[in-house]
Specification:
This protein has 305 residues and is of the alpha+beta class. It is built from 11 helices and 14 strands. The relative contact order is 0.16.
Length: 305
């Protein structure tokens, strides 16, 4: 079964590259995208705005880097150190620069000449939101629309497992009942959204890839409490096995880290609905073919109104 699955994955990736939709690089999971791919992705992104942005939603856009301070405060390194990308820079003098260049020319490791900067690559679009909303919320809470390029160090030949990708999220912050109800409603809304695009979408309980000896316990607890649900669609194979959307209920984890309080001075709860823009786009090519001009009229009417 493993060999069969691997062959299917490689075949789909090869076809994406053959049609020019993905532009390969020398690094696994790092691709350029051509104009057709970007046009479909942009239309998916616009559709998310149309169907998902509720009245009163705040729009926030951040660069694809996050302060090291916020990363530490969030606790990300305790759970996912294997996924983080840290930004390093050269801060030496002329002599050290000559040594750096010499190491490069002699094909030696040159990275020891670099020092950590104050930023890391953003691991999830929602992370900068929590620092931005610290303090006391209005009585109705807050709802934020956020989008960013994200990075996770997961080199892979699976086209859906990119190291650098775009994530669109809606983040709900407020009283526990408000937040949990909002997250649960988005499970049905997400399935409706994906199926309207002709995708064979299914929901499944899930957990995050926690690191370390305690990771299994954290993952089991997350599943037991039903804190994470993924919406799956066919991408790497013909089966709906790839998470293209994720619905996460964080309880008061981030509110405790960033001191986000409800109007009654209690730690707020947070949840997010995440859309993997590249993954949804890949799912569309898997489902409908590599030429969008041949897609069904129903799908084209939604994406090209």
């Amino acid at each position: 079964m493993t060999n069969i699955t691997q062959n299917v994955e490689n075949s789909f990736l090869a076809q994406l590259i053959q049609h020019g939709l993905l532009i390969p690089s020398s690094v696994k999971g790092v691709y350029g995208r051509n104009g057709i791919f970007e046009d479909v992705l942009t239309r998916v992104d616009n559709l998310i705005t149309t169907v998902g942005r509720e009245p009163g939603t705040e729009v926030m856009r951040f660069p694809p880097v996050l302060s090291r301070e916020v990363t530490e405060q969030s606790g990300y390194m305790k759970s996912f150190p294997h996924l983080l990308g840290s930004v390093h820079a050269f801060t030496g003098d002329h002599r050290q620069h000559r040594e750096l260049v010499q190491d490069i020319e002699e094909h030696h490791d040159w990275t020891h000449h670099l020092s950590p900067s104050d930023v890391v690559l953003t691991p999830a679009a929602c992370y900068p939101v929590y620092a931005a909303v610290a303090g006391t919320l209005p009585e109705s809470g807050r709802l934020v629309d956020v989008s960013s390029y994200c990075f996770r160090h997961e080199p892979s030949d699976e086209p859906a497992r990119m190291q650098s990708f775009r994530m669109r999220e809606f983040v709900r912050i407020g009283e526990p009942e408000q937040v949990e109800q909002w997250r649960n409603q988005w499970i049905d809304r997400g399935l409706t959204f994906l199926r309207s695009l002709g995708l064979n979408a299914q929901q499944a309980p899930a957990n995050d890839p926690f690191f370390g000896p305690g990771g299994r316990l954290l993952a089991a607890s997350q599943q037991e409490q039903q804190l994470k649900t993924e919406l799956l669609a066919p991408v790497n194979t013909e089966q709906p096995e790839t998470a293209v959307m994720s619905l996460n209920y964080h309880q008061d984890h981030f509110a405790g880290k960033f001191n986000i309080l409800t109007a009654t001075a209690q730690h707020a709860h947070t949840a997010c609905t995440g859309f993997g823009l590249e993954r949804i786009t890949l799912a569309l090519f898997r489902a409908h073919g590599f030429d969008p001009t041949t897609w069904t009229a129903a799908v084209r009417e939604i994406l090209w109104p």
